[in-house]
């Protein structure tokens, strides 16, 4: 079971620790005029919204990590075992293809299920000149569920189907980001740690966990930032600015240039790097305490 190895706890803990970094990253990625430095975005938030603005969306971030990370981390080894057992030796048990494939399956499942929580988190973290329209996470969920989809006409849709469509806005780039994270983070950590151990550079333990998770954090940040920019733009698009994913990509390319896909990279790396290190350091220790073998 996903919860048996403590996979929920690291993600939820890191959600709180990294929320200030995450909200600055989201604000940078939503800016369409100029890059917006970390200092300018942070100082503007502190000046106009106060210190606690850095913790906006924390509840949704905790819920998102409690869902996404629990599924992604908790099912990774299950899928590794299933693939190894049912593919008649196609996958080497220590090979990178098995790790990448298992991680992508687990990441796809987790990111798809957690999309509504990711959507609410981004909406709660975005900047609103007239003040946030959301009083709480619960109010944000209800408001998004009942809002009119971009491009539609008529009164707000409140049926189950249209409500779910609203909650799953941006699910394709969310899953695409999940693929990028899944294809890099867990395999990079797992493979790097095994590489260090095989060459007797480090033994299983805290130093190996720290080294492997630090490298994995850099790799996953480089891979996921472009998709994250598109995901954030689409999820926060309530005025039909973008007709779809491809239109969003081409608009960014045309009006802001290719470097725009790396807006917020410093904060992305700070967040994902910290997130990766804290998650795997805690995760490995919880596995040890539970009597489960290391990754």
From TrEMBL:
Membrane topology: Multi-pass membrane protein
Gene3D superfamilies documented for this protein: Mitochondrial carrier domain
Solcar repeats: 1-82, 94-195, 204-289
Pfam families with a match to the protein in the record: Mito_carr
Subcellular location: Membrane
Presence of the UniProt keyword S-adenosyl-L-methionine in the record: no
Keyword Transport among record annotations: yes
Cellular component annotations (GO), alphabetically ordered: membrane
InterPro entries: MCP_dom_sf, MCP_transmembrane, Mito_Metabolite_Transporter
Keywords, alphabetical: Membrane, Repeat, Transmembrane, Transmembrane helix, Transport
Predominant location category: membrane
Family: Belongs to the mitochondrial carrier (TC 2.A.29) family.
Protein name, as recorded: Mitochondrial carrier
């Amino acid at each position: 079971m996903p919860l048996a190895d403590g996979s929920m706890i690291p993600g939820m803990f890191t959600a709180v620790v990294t929320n200030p970094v995450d909200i600055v990253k989201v604000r940078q990625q939503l800016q369409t005029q100029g890059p917006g430095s970390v200092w300018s975005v942070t100082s503007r938030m502190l000046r106009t919204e106060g210190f606690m603005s850095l913790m906006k969306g924390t509840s949704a971030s905790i819920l998102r990590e409690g869902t996404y990370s629990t599924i992604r981390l908790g099912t990774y080894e299950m899928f590794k075992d299933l693939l190894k057992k049912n593919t008649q030796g196609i996958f080497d048990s220590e090979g990178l293809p098995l790790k990448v494939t298992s991680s992508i399956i687990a990441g796809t499942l987790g990111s798809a299920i957690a999309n509504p929580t990711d959507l609410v988190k981004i909406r709660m973290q975005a900047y609103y000149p007239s003040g946030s329209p959301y009083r709480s996470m619960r109010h944000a969920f209800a408001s998004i569920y009942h809002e009119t989809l971009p491009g539609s006409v008529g009164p707000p849709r409140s049926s189950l189907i249209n409500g779910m469509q609203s909650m799953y806005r941006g699910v394709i780039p969310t899953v695409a980001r999940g693929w990028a994270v899944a294809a890099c983070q867990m395999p990079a950590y797992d493979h790097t740690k095994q590489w260090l151990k095989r060459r007797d550079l480090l033994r299983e333990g805290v130093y190996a966990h720290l080294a492997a998770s630090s490298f994995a954090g850099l790799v996953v940040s480089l891979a996921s930032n472009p998709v994250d920019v598109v995901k954030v733009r689409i999820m926060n698009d309530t005025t039909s600015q973008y007709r779809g994913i491809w239109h969003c990509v081409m608009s960014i390319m045309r009006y802001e240039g290719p470097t725009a896909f790396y807006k917020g990279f410093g904060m992305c790396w700070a967040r994902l790097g910290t997130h990766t290190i804290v998650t795997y350091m805690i995760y490995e220790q919880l596995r040890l305490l539970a009597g489960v073998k290391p990754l």
